[in-house]
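Sequence, structure tokens passed on for absentees:
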Amino acid sequence: MKVKKIVLAYSGGLDTSVIIKWLKEKYDAEIVAFAADVGQGQELDPVREKAIATGASEVYIEDLKEEFVRDFVFPMLRCNAFYECNYLLGTAIARPLIAKEQIRIAECCGADGVSHGATGKGNDQVRFELAYLDLNPDIKIIAPWREWDLNSRSVLIDYAREHGIPIPVTKDKAYSMDRNLLHISYEGGILEDPWVAPEEDMFLLTVSPENAPDKATTIEVEYESGNPVAVNGERMSPATLLTKLNEYGGQNGIGRIDVVENRFVGMKSRGVYETPGGTILHIAHRAVESVTMDREVMFLRDSLIPSYARMIYNGFWFSPERALLQKTIDESQKTVSGTARLKLYKGNCVVTGRKADRSLYDQNVVTFEEGDGYQQNDADGFIRLNALRLKMYSKTFGNK
């Protein structure tokens, strides 16, 4: 494969630090490093200097935080999407945006190839490349992990040391980490044994629940049409709001999970995740939905969650089926406006109140005291009609 210019999705981590030099040697091409700022914080500080020092001819660092939260995280949260009932899809939801911007940069700078640092065992290779091919079917894709003989992180570390490439990991603590505004993930190293507990000093976003404050923190999150718009009455941009909730959640030890999940390629993988703000938003969103969303609409929307989450996890964000589901989900969210009150305490996020100007919850109907919104004897016919098929079945086939 002959390519003249390659845009590399560059993080400055172990894999992509090595890849710049490897690409130059293997393809004798110009390498453009592209780093997407989706909330990595100080991790991006040394990226430009490091990329140039290791062989990149140009470096693009694009601030995508607002777009990431507004156009990718919030649509996903409107669906309450979990993968396999646990994983909040923090890494998966960032990949289509990174790929989208990478293709844009490739077109702007006249590159004929793109590259990434995802391994041949993981999900990210699929996520990146499905997006590349959807956005630019003619782009040439280079996946070093599927070509080179540097077949382990230990070998990569040795390669980096031999070539004087600074890297952020060691053989003793070789975690693979991915960070953005929604979460941080940890894989590899000691975590490859699913029986070994993660070390406490590994966590970066949250204090341990045991060390969280002894006094609860109470917050309010306001929603409009399924999207969070304010915290404690203060309206904020999407990225600012998620950042604020990450602070609240992190201070109170909220959002840690340790899971074994099924990768798209077929193997099981152990991952540890911190998703403090996202956890709060899921719980708050459900609370507002409980008083504003019709029962049958909620049932149908909830039935779509596993399919929707799998589409994101497997890399089909730009697919027509995800777009179709998104329209249905967004239609269900038109009534979801209100406020949730939450108590944060030592790893727990507990709903203590929910309200909405247009609420389906009618206290006059539900009250145990005297009310005029419900005739209790109406339940007699309701029960008899619902029991009719059960009675017919029992008379015909017996009740055992």
